[in-house]
What we know:
Strand content: 35-45%
Distance between the termini: 76 Å
Number of helices: 1
Shape: elongated
Radius of gyration: 33 Å
Number of strands: 15
Order of helices and strands: HEEEEEEEEEEEEEEE
Helix content: under 10%
Amino acid sequence: MLARIALLTMCAFGAASAPAMAQTSATSETEILGQGRITKLEDLDFGQVIPGLSGGTITVAPDGTVTTGGTVIPSGGTTQPAAFRLEMPIFPIFQYVGYSSPSSSDSVVLTHTTDATETMTLTNFQTDLVDGWRIPFFSGDIDFNVGGTLAVDATQEPGTYTGQFNVVVDLP
């Protein structure tokens, strides 16, 4: 009987006295790259405009070309498209860039700076940012411009008009 108790005791303690498992730890890490950031470099500027007898439109294209329709006459000042820089993370893989807005069907109201009842409408947005795949091996920055068409009424109140629009670029 004593031998049985000793054997049971050895079995019970034998399991507890087995060698400890070897273990160590490792560190896990990753670096999260931002998907991108858009920085405004220049505002869209139509310069100084004379409406003429019947009004019309003035267009600033993404390449800076200015055209008019109707009796609108450009009369000085600075004309320029809005300029932006898309800062993308630098990594050696393809990155898809898709321009989302403002689109040609969007519109923005510009308001007279001292008389909020006086407005003009900015439409027909255009960009020179081409949708597609990019390989940002050496630099993740992409500069692009946005232009548009401003409707000018023949009886437009003289003064400065301002408005804002958002630029959205998709980086899936």
